[in-house]
Specification:
mainly beta, SH3 type barrels, two-stranded antiparallel ribbon, 10 strands, elongated
Length: 104
């Protein structure tokens, strides 16, 4: 079970965007793509067949999963995540600091 999933709100722990929050757009192995975080400028070549103009575009690049933590609304900070099994056999994620279940 992945501890960070698509749609989670995360906070960046290190790097140039340290402390900024965003929503996870995708998770691919150990990389996460976070909305409006880790922006880079890409020089785009023109492609007349696809009707694409030459431009410098802003693009979000993936971060390593260890550089982000899930935002805990109750504690107002980034938090670690654990996985536990409930009595009915269902596995759920929970915050390590206060034990609150993330997805019920």
């Amino acid at each position: 079970m992945n501890k960070i999933r698509k749609g989670d709100t995360v906070v960046v722990l290190s790097g140039k965007d340290k402390g900024r929050q965003g929503t996870v757009l995708s998770v691919d192995g150990d990389k996460v793509l976070v909305e409006n975080i880790n922006k880079v400028k890409k020089h785009q070549k023109p492609n007349p067949q696809r009707n694409v103009q030459a431009a410098i575009i802003d693009k979000s690049m993936p971060l390593h999963i260890s550089k982000v933590a899930i935002w805990n609304m109750g504690a107002k900070k980034g938090d670690r995540v654990g996985v536990k099994k409930l009595n009915d056999g269902k596995r759920v994620r929970f915050f390590k600091s206060n034990g609150e279940v993330i997805d019920a």
